Amino acid sequence: MHIPDGYLSPQTYVPLFGASLVCWSIGLKKIKRELSTKQVPYLAMAAVFSFLIMMFNIPIPGGTTGHAAGAGIIAVLLGPWTAVIAVSVVLIIQALIFGDGGITAIGANCFNIAVVMPFVAFWVFNLIKGKSRDPKRLSLAAFFSGYASLTVSAIFVAIQLGIQPLIARSSSGTPLYAPYPLSVALPVMALEHLLLFSIVEGVVTLLLFKYFMKNEPELIYAETGNGT
Amino acid sequence: MANRIPSFLLDKPDSDIYSEDRGKIKLSFIERGINQVADVIRSGYIQWDTATNDGFFQRLDARIKMIFLLFFAVIVSLKKEIMPEIYLGSFIFVLVLMSRLNIFSFYKKVFFLGFLFGFLIAVPSAFNVIVKGEIIFPVFQLSKDYRFWVYHIPADIGITREGISAVSMLTIRVVNSLSIAFLVLSTTPFPDIIKALKMLKVPDSFLMVITLSYKYIFIFSKTVEDMHRAKKSRLLREVNSAEARKWAAGRMGFIFRKTRLRCDEIFKAMLSRGFSEEVKIYKPRKLKSRDIIAGAILMITGVFFIWY
After folding, report:
1. Residue A57 lies in a domain
2. Contact status, residue A121 vs residue A87, Cβ threshold 8 Å
3. How many independent structural domains does chain B possess?
4. In-domain check, residue A2
5. Which helix (H) or strand (E) holds B232?
6. Does residue B219 belong to any structural domain of this protein?
7. ipTM score of the complex?
8. In whole numbers, what is the pLDDT of chain A averaged over residues?
9. Given A57, A102, A184, which is nearest B32 (Cβ)?
């Protein structure tokens, strides 16, 4: 999901960086209003948790293992704005220390994974849950929040990559950045996520949600509306 | 004399204990977890180690290196021809040599990732099914053209000149971007990178969050590694998938609790040291003339590459 350097044209990565910047600014203001001076350690620990989720490989049906991106469950547990900042911090650290994701693509990666994913997860969770307290419906909401958030995020990535041949070509017509048109990038990304990766994301979101519902339901932001 | 060894220790362990087959998950999920955590810790140590070497880039101020990183990453993304990208790559190679980095391990990492994210992902686009053009390597011939919605599969399928050009361009651009990023990241300690970001007007509170996260990622990575090792040491055989999922969810929940508790402890520690409402990271020292001269040379070289 991390877009490396070289795949996006400046016409794409500059506006996406601007969009992420706006979201970071709104997110920091909202969290500061809710948490005041406690915001720094709170966000840092949320980022650490978001990073560490990826260290756990979960066995999935079919005999393989996978790990989740975690942005969906962070949004359900801590709220979407906290997730925006926490997951962005993780993505910035990944780019600056581990070389995961490009430097010019930091804005695009943060927008796709740290902005789109948490909000889609939070909205889908609330949409399916409604006012119900039925455990089965809550579990369904948790699974689909993870499943839908990663799928929508992958579709955003596919669109950004797929428009590159339309944006920038050399004089001979050769694509200068990501070479696959929308007609290829979109179905490939959508299908591989719909059929595999999003299922892993959904399973991890469901497992963690069930764990917290059973042991510490008061900590779930989407249930209490209170991140502190 | 009767055997006193418990029977479960006398059972021969499954020789294929770390593999996955026939839909059964064995212990590989623990091994993968340990490897991922080990990678995180190793990357942190390697960066710290190479950043303290005595080379050209290590001696430069982090602010100059951050400007270099952003400036050259943008230049690499702006180039539209292969030759300027090759010249840029050669310039970065010289900088890597001057910084006394281990050339073999540096380029092994760069080329591996460049091959993976540049070449391998892009290579199908060399075919005329994706990038139309003059076929120079015919591969396959169908009886007729096929059209379906927006898709068109020509009768003659092969690798095109334009396709090769697109793949080469993308691969070399990815390799150059990775080289620039790894050059700066391998020669700059992470705290210095964060201080340098202050120059880019990143808010202090955001920088503080990144700094704290970075420190605690390593501290908690060790905790996660211990969890995996403890689980592994208690297992003799394959585990049921559902049980493994339950264990992972429980451990993630535990980590969540630990981070929440640590959040309170950090906050109390901050208060006890006189922390008020304002997060303030002090301004870094003034740039030395050596840094200014090196920075100017790098910038002029960058401008030359923009025009070339």
Report:
1. yes
2. no
3. 1
4. no
5. helix B204-234
6. yes
7. 0.81
8. 84
9. A57
